[in-house]
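From the pipeline queue, job 12 of 40. The input is one protein chain; the requested action is below.

Action: predict structure.
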Amino acid sequence: MTAVKPDFVPRMEGLDALRGFALMGLFLVHMPELYELYWAHPATDPTQLLWHDIIFTTFAGKAFALLALCFGVSFFIIMDRSAKRGIDFTGRFIWRLVLLGLIGIVHGLWYRGDVLEVLAVMGLFLIPFYRVKSNTVVTALGIFFLCQPLLVFQMVSALQGAGWANQKPASWGGTIPEAYLTGKSLIETIRMNWVDGHPFKWLFMLEAGRLSQILGLSLIGMVLGRIGFFSQPERFAKVRLFGWAIAAVLALGLYLGKAKLVALVPTSEAVFMPHSLWDTIVSSWFDLSLMATLALGFLSLYYGAGHRVLNLLAPAGRMTLTLYVLQSIIFVPVFYSFGLGLHATMQQSTAVLIGIAAFAVQVATAHLWFRYFLYGPLEWLWRACTYLTVKVPFIRKSASA
């Protein structure tokens, strides 16, 4: 086995910082959500509801979407760097996705809301699109998937009276398993995560349009990688500001006008799905517009006056896999009944403040970690398994010396 050299190509720290920002947003959603147990007993106190609504309006659906966008950029970077060395990385990238899927499956036994497995499966669909050389075509395909074609088709079919299209989505019947709330057995929690949580996650992802959204965003991310949006950020300063203004206007318009827009599709007891589907579609568009506002605003500040502060997130973005898994390893037992069982007593404000403090500790740890190591621990393991060798440099030479 030959040694695998680390990537000495200068890192795109703007992409790392943006990925770190997405990880922060996802964690700040998980915390007041109590790693999904919030829905067993939602908050009723107005102050606590305010905390919940601020976090969910800002980050729920947006942070995850941003991770999907970054996933598409990273896909292009990996494929492109190998292509420039005369290597077709397709086969090894498929193996890399298989490994990510396995990590996700194992992580899903601990926390049913794992997203790694979903990203791994959807990553397979990116590979044929990489062969399409026209950025216009790929962008158009990305926008097509972001328009939720499956949900639109179901909505139109429901309006035309199709019985199958007017059936309630299976994920609507999902509940929080009692094993999470009152059971004391970790084994039972793991079993429920597999037999109940695993299929529920995929049903929700499909029926809520998340799979289509992931593919669309990943394709857009691939195009951003191709045009040098992160490798040549100085070229896109005006584009970022212009895009931010458009996204902000769209987000505000959809936020204020959503009720009137959704009301355009009628509803009744007999035919209720078209209205519900239209609500889901419009909500996904709001999430996308606010995600774009956050991303472009973040990058405009990052490449401007806020660089020094926002670049603190870059090391966290370099070890997103490790930190994401570590978050659930630590906090699932805090909320679930096999651990401390605090899901019934922790307030939204407390959960958010703990989340902010915990992520700050993770950022500080990431800065310290990269003084001595080249990769995060799970990132190194993923890379070593990708190349089927342990001869992947891990400790920095200066640190080992």
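Job complete. The radius of gyration is 22 Å.
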